[in-house]
């Protein structure tokens, strides 16, 4: 199926999403299903939070406009072409202990850095606005080759983005992610327990 952005440009999924403080990850025996994507792991984690009344956080739906549908038979319809109605902001949002939560999730096959090109200007603008309103905003980064996951607060991401805009490097080094981010050990239930990091950073526990 073909997806297009509002400006008509064809959408091409970025599977090369990317970049660590607090202790290098050890291979976690609990992470048995190594074929899971970051999105699947986070969706499972969020379901765990909702089911246990811990937090209400969901993946944001992406509004699309269908422009071409094929009907191979009466009982079936196949969408052949569609357009994103608007540029997406971040992947997830919700509420935890009365605080608004908003975050983006990215993964990369690179092992030494995280390219900033995986973010878009409108996402950076959105995260900055969330912070200005007192929301909790961050990104979750996964290094798929090493099965490492980190939470990086949006305030740090904005600093690295500004550095790039001022002519600096176009990526975040892994050492910087390690220094400013917070490693999240992979578990079974929940898979990616980022709430623990939120509790630590914002003293919500």
Automatic annotation (TrEMBL):
SUPFAM superfamilies with a match to the protein in the record: Restriction endonuclease-like (SSF52980)
Site description Transition state stabilizer, residues in chain: 106
Compartment(s) where it occurs, according to its Swiss-Prot or TrEMBL record: Cytoplasm
Pfam families for this protein: RecU
Keyword DNA repair: yes
Cofactor annotation: Mg(2+)
InterPro entries in the cross-refs: Resolv_RecU, Restrct_endonuc-II-like, tRNA_endonuc-like_dom_sf
Residue stretches spanning the membrane: none
Keyword DNA damage recorded: yes
A Gene Ontology term for the protein's cellular component: cytoplasm
EC annotation from Swiss-Prot or TrEMBL: 3.1.21.10
GO BP field: chromosome segregation; DNA recombination; DNA repair
Renumbered residue ranges of the record's region Disordered: 1-22
Binding site for Mg(2+): 89, 91, 104, 123
First-tier enzyme category under EC: hydrolase
Main location: cytoplasm
Keyword line: Cytoplasm, DNA damage, DNA recombination, DNA repair, Endonuclease, Hydrolase, Magnesium, Metal-binding, Nuclease
Catalysis performed (reactions): Endonucleolytic cleavage at a junction such as a reciprocal single-stranded crossover between two homologous DNA duplexes (Holliday junction)
Gene3D superfamilies: 3.40.1350.10
Bound cofactor: record note: Binds 1 Mg(2+) ion per subunit.
GO MF, one annotated term: nucleic acid binding
Role, per record: Endonuclease that resolves Holliday junction intermediates in genetic recombination. Cleaves mobile four-strand junctions by introducing symmetrical nicks in paired strands. Promotes annealing of linear ssDNA with homologous dsDNA. Required for DNA repair, homologous recombination and chromosome segregation.
Similarity-based family: Belongs to the RecU family.
Protein name: Holliday junction resolvase RecU
């Amino acid at each position: 199926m073909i997806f297009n952005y509002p400006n008509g440009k064809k959408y091409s999924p970025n599977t090369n999403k990317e970049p660590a403080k607090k202790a290098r990850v050890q291979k976690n025996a609990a992470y048995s299903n190594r074929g899971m994507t970051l999105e699947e792991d986070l969706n499972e984690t969020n379901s765990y939070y909702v089911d246990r009344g811990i937090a209400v956080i969901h993946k944001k739906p992406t509004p699309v406009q269908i422009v071409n549908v094929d009907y191979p038979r009466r009982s079936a319809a196949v969408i052949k072409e569609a357009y994103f109605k608007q540029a997406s902001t971040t992947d997830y949002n919700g509420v935890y202990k009365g605080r608004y939560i908003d975050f983006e999730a990215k993964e990369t096959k690179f092992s030494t850095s995280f390219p900033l090109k995986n973010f878009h200007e409108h996402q950076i603008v959105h995260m900055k606005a969330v912070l200005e309103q007192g929301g909790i905003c961050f990104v979750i980064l996964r290094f798929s080759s090493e099965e490492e996951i980190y939470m990086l607060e949006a305030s740090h991401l904005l600093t690295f983005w500004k550095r790039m805009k001022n002519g600096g490097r176009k990526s975040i080094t892994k050492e910087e992610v390690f220094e400013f981010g917070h490693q999240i050990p992979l578990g079974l239930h929940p898979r990616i327990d980022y709430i623990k990091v939120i509790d630590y950073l914002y003293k919500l526990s």
